Every structure is written in structure tokens, then in C-alpha cells.
Amino acid sequence: MEGRWPNSGTDPLNPARAVAEKTSTDQHIDDPALPAGDLTGATVQLWAGSNPWSQQTGTVTSTTAGALDFKGGNYRCDPLCMGDKNYRNYYLVGSRATLDQPGEWYYDKAAKTLYLVPPKGGMRGHTVTAKHRSWGIDLSGSSHVTVRGLDLWGTSLRTGEDSTGVLVEDLNARYVSEYSTLPMPADDELAIEPGEGHIGVSPDPGLRRPAPRHRQHPA
Fold it and tell me: Of 178, 180, 131, which is closest to residue 152 (Cα–Cα)?
């Protein structure tokens, strides 16, 4: 598990989350339970708003005791932003300050250094493995290729628009991809009105995007 605060718990489908104070705003969190240490650069995962249906992410820009500022998240309020809302749930990843239990790790990209809290009993008998490349098998531009009976770990396979006659079977693939951030799309990339959330859209460049429809509200 990547180092995070608060710790996830034993059920990955129902991870633990912190709850911000009602004084929080769309780019600021107040929480006296925040861990000590510099959390600048950490990713904040937000599940907040009056009726949250999409998780948001932001980047912590500064921290003080019991508070932090961040950029990103859904600054288009309402309904998916932090503040005096029904839901103010969040958690933090991507900071060395979150390492507090065996098995958690943090990778410092600038220093190219991996920090790991060893399991109980130390590292004897354990091996640390890491993802090395995005594509273990890259068939972009290749055709009439058969890929059979391989094990993929921490990587994946791709073909391309010009690939034809490719057969893939009996692959055992684990941890093929991951992402931990949800970038905020620009207003012109929204499929629905900004006030309703932020579903992104990537239309065919040859097609004309229809004009947005506006809801009619009763007087």
C-alpha cells in the first residue's frame, strides 16, 4: 500500500477517510487531526460536496498545524467541492510524512529514492519489486503477431490503429495499469454544465460538438 493518511484499513472496498471541518473551502482543508510534517506536494483525494458522485484530486501547496491548502479538486461549486457541505471526506497520499505502518512506501521522484517501512521482523526473506515500463509488449504498427502464454507483472500490452491480425491469448497479467490523480478538465472539455459536475468528453475531431443544453427550472 502506498503511504497514506489516514491508513486505509483492512477492507480495500471501504477505505478509511478523514473528515474536514466545516470551515474548509474549495481549496483549503481544516482538520486538527492532520499528521505532523510537511505535506506539500502530496495528493489529496476528495470525496466531498453536497452530493458527491465523483472523486476529485488536488495537490497540496502548503501546510500548517491542522490545515492545508491545495490546488485542483473541483473548484466549480456546487455540488462537488470541499466546504460547509454534507460530505467532507478526503485522504492524503504521496508524502513521506504519511509513512507510519509496515509495508507502506513513498517514492521521491526528484531524489530517485524509495522509502519503505519494512514488515515486522525486517526485510529478510522479502523482495522489493517496482514497475519499470508501461508497455511490456508494444505492437504499435505491427500485424499478424501471436502473443501466447506470457506472464505480465506491472506492465501491459498495446496494439495500434494500423495493427491487424493480432492474436492474444492465455496471458496472466497483474497490475497492468494504475492512476492516482484525476486532472480537472477545462470548461470547454465538459460534457455537462460546470455547475453539474465535470464529466470530460473527447469528441471525434471530425465531428462538431453540439451546443450545451440548459435546464429549465420552475419559477
Answer: 131
φ/ψ (deg, to 5) at 214? -105, 135
What secondary structure does DSSP assign to 169-205, as a single string? Answer: ES-EEES-------PPPPGGGBSS-GGG---B----T
Judged by DSSP in three states, 67 sits in strand
Cα–Cα nearest to 182, from 96, 89, 57: 57
pLDDT digits (tens, 9 = 90+) for 198-211: 454 444 444 444 44
- SS3 at position 188: helix
Enumerate the β-bridge partners of residue 25.
28
Report in angstroms the alpha-carbon separations of 1 from 45, 61, 119, 185, 219.
Answer: 15, 24, 12, 28, 51
**Helix H segments across 57-197?**
none
| Residue 204, φ and ψ in degrees, nearest 5 | -60, 125
Q: How far apart are CA 133 and CA 156, in angstroms?
A: 9
| pLDDT tens track for 86-134 | 889 999 999 999 999 998 999 998 999 999 999 888 899 998 888 888 8
Q: In angstroms, rounded to a whole number, what is the distance separating the alpha carbons of residues 27 and 75?
A: 7
